[in-house]
Recover the amino acids of this structure.
């Protein structure tokens, strides 16, 4: 029911490999296994995961690479965000990153063709909720309610062009507006408010990979420690196949397959 590509980043002695983009950021990071299946939406069609042992090193190496792995419009959006927030606030945000970034592209439905969920694992008590609350107010002046209560927490509307791609590079595109919530040790980003709410409801009712015997059996047999994991469910991912994401993966991420 799914295919999976699982890579550990290694550079052979004596072989010159140009390290750029995510490859540079993940190089020399200790590989880890995917243990966050409880947070993976059951109707995920395509999943990308960046896994790293040292979040501070990953961020330090990723940030200089962001302009390389982003389009001109994303780079301009990043410069504008830096001008508004300043280095100190962004530095504080990046220090919260812990262990993995997971992008879930969801099975299209009749309402939204390409819902996306990005999971950013963070350190406990990271204090990021205040950061996103400020962003929601700052970027939604006179444009509606900046945040709303939902299931004991809040959903924050961040009206900033392609925020995840601005923060983490071109792999995480497809968020013209971003909706953010917090669940345990993850910041959850979505490209649609209803997609985010549906995701949080499904977590509550445990409709995730962790509670699927099929997914668990498949992952246990095939998935080892890795820095980059790519999983696809062919039955659920027909819309993404037509959009050329495979071309993006193999050409834009600079992986030497």
């Amino acid at each position: 029911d799914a295919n999976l590509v699982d890579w550990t980043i290694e550079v052979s002695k004596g072989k010159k490999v140009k390290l750029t983009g995510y490859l540079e950021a993940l190089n020399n990071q200790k590989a880890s296994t995917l243990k966050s299946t409880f947070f993976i939406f059951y109707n995920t069609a395509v999943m990308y995961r960046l896994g790293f042992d040292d979040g501070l090193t990953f961020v330090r190496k990723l940030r200089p690479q962001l302009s390389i792995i982003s389009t001109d419009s994303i780079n301009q959006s990043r410069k504008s965000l830096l001008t508004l927030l300043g280095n100190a606030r962004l530095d504080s945000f990046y220090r919260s990153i812990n262990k993995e970034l997971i992008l879930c592209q969801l099975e299209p439905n009749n309402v939204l063709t390409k819902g996306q969920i990005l999971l950013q694992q963070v350190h406990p008590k990271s204090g990021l909720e205040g950061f996103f609350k400020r962003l929601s107010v700052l970027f939604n002046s006179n444009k509606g309610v900046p945040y709303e209560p939902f299931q004991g927490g809040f959903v924050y509307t961040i009206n900033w062009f392609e925020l995840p791609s601005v923060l983490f590079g071109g792999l995480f595109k497809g968020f013209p507006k971003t909706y953010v919530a917090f669940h345990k040790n993850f910041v959850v980003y979505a490209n649609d408010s209803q997609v985010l709410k549906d995701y949080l409801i499904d977590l509550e009712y445990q409709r995730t990979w962790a509670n699927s015997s099929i997914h668990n059996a498949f992952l246990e047999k095939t998935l080892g420690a890795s820095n980059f994991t790519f999983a696809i469910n062919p039955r659920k991912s027909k819309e993404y196949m037509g959009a050329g994401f495979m071309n993006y993966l193999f050409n834009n991420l600079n992986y030497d397959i």
